[in-house]
Design brief:
CATH architecture of the largest domain: Orthogonal Bundle
GO cellular component, one term: ATP-binding cassette (ABC) transporter complex
Number of helices: 10
Number of domains: 2
Distance between the termini: 40 Å
Domain ABC transmembrane type-1: 84-296
GO molecular function: transmembrane transporter activity
Helix content: 55-70%
Shape: flat
CATH superfamily of the largest domain: MetI-like
Structural class: mainly alpha
Radius of gyration: 26 Å
CATH topology of the largest domain: MetI-like fold
Strand content: under 5%
Order of helices and strands: HHHHHEEEEHHHHH
Largest sheet: 4 strands, antiparallel
Transmembrane segments: 14-36, 90-110, 137-156, 177-196, 277-299
Pfam families: BPD_transp_1 (PF00528)
Number of strands: 4
Length: 308
C-alpha cells in the first residue's frame, strides 16, 4: 500500500525542525517589537523621544587624543568618531601585541629549559589570575605617572609622565593609551599563551617525531609542522579572546583614555539622552565584535582539513 504524501511529509524530521526554527524566529521578532514599543512609550511618557538630532549639536568639550583635527565647537557626531577611532586603535594594537606575546609565552611553556618554562608559567598565572582593572591601574598609576615630567631617553624613545615620544617618527603616545594597551596586551596574552600551548599539545606526537626523522630543527618543526596543524585548534578559542579585548577596551574610562565609551558618557551627561547614546554604543561594540568574529571565522576555514 502506497504511503500518503502528507503522511510522508509529517514523518520527515527536517520539516519539523524547520517549523520549530520559524516559530522561534517569529517569537524573537515579536518580543523585539514589543520591547521597542514599550521603550518608545516609556520615553514619550517621560517627555523624551528616540531621536538622534542632538548629534548635530556642538559637543562643547575638548578631547586629549585626537587622530584627526577636532575642536570643542564640533558636533557630537565628530566627537564620537574621534572616540571610535581611538577605540579601534587600541583594539588593533592590543590584538597584534597580545598575539605575538601569547604565542611566544605559549611556546616557552613547552620549552625543555627549566628556567624558561617556569618563568613563562609564573607570567601566565600572575596575569591570568589578576583583575584586568587592577592591572590597568598598575600600569597607569605605578608606572607611567611615576615617571619624571621631563622624560628619560630610552633608546629611540623618550619616556615621560605624559607618555612615550618617538622623536624620529615625530609621534607621541599618551600615557593613558600606553597603559591601556599594556594592560590589555599582558592580560590577554596570558590566556592566548594557554590556548597556544593547548593547541600545540593537541598535535599528535608522531608528527614531531616524523619531522625529527627528516632532520628538521626544532624551530623548523614548530614553524612548518606543529603550528599549521595547531591553528585548527587555536583559532576558534583565539576568536573569543580577540572579542574580549574589544569589549574590555571600554575599561579605558577608568584611567581617563578618551575612547568611544568615555566620550559617550560625557555626551549622556550633557544631553540627557542616555537611551539614545547607549543604543549607539551597543551598535558600535556589536559591530566590532561581529566583524572580529567574521574575520576569524573566514581565517579558520583556511586552516580546516578539507574532506574528500
Amino acid at each position: 500500500m502506497a504511503q500518503h504524501p502528507l503522511s510522508k511529509w509529517f514523518r520527515n524530521i527536517w520539516h519539523w525542525r524547520t517549523i520549530a526554527q520559524i516559530i522561534f524566529l517569529a517569537m524573537v521578532i515579536t518580543c523585539s517589537i514589543l520591547a521597542w514599543n514599550t521603550l518608545a512609550r516609556n520615553m514619550r511618557s517621560s517627555g523624551l523621544a528616540i531621536s538622534f538630532d542632538f548629534l548635530a549639536d556642538p559637543a562643547s568639550f575638548d578631547i586629549a587624543d585626537t587622530p584627526f583635527p577636532y575642536k570643542a565647537s564640533d558636533s557630537y557626531t565628530k566627537a564620537l568618531q574621534v572616540g571610535l577611532l581611538n577605540s579601534l586603535k587600541v583594539i588593533a594594537v592590543s590584538i597584534l601585541s597580545a598575539t605575538a606575546i601569547g604565542i611566544t609565552v605559549g611556546v616557552a611553556r613547552l620549552s625543555n629549559n627549566w628556567l624558561v618554562k617556569h618563568l613563562s608559567q609564573v607570567y601566565v598565572e600572575i596575569l591570568r589570575n589578576t583583575p584586568l582593572l587592577l592591572q590597568l591601574f598598575f600600569w597607569y598609576s605605578a608606572i607611567f605617572l611615576s615617571l619624571p615630567a621631563t622624560g628619560d631617553r630610552l633608546g629611540f624613545a623618550i619616556l615621560a609622565k605624559d607618555g612615550i615620544t618617538f622623536p624620529a617618527l615625530k609621534m607621541t603616545l599618551s600615557s593613558e593609551f600606553c597603559a591601556l594597551v599594556m594592560g590589555l596586551t599582558m592580560f590577554a596574552s596570558a590566556f592566548i599563551a594557554e590556548i597556544v600551548r593547548g593547541g600545540i599539545l593537541a598535535v599528535p606526537k608522531g608528527q614531531t617525531e616524523a619531522a625529527k626523522a627528516l632532520g628538521l630543527s626544532n624551530f623548523q618543526t614548530l614553524q612548518k609542522i606543529v603550528l599549521p596543524q595547531a591553528l585548527r585548534v587555536i583559532i576558534p578559542s583565539l576568536t573569543s579572546q580577540y572579542v574580549n579585548i574589544a569589549k574590555n577596551s571600554s575599561l579605558a574610562i577608568a584611567i581617563g583614555y578618551t575612547d568611544i565609551y568615555r566620550i559617550a558618557s560625557t555626551t549622556i551627561n550633557q544631553t540627557g539622552r542616555p537611551v539614545n547614546v547607549i543604543l549607539i554604543i551597543m551598535a558600535v561594540y556589536l559591530t566590532i565584535s561581529l566583524s572580529i568574529s567574521l574575520g576569524m571565522n573566514l581565517l579558520n576555514r583556511q586552516f580546516q582539513i578539507v574532506e574528500r
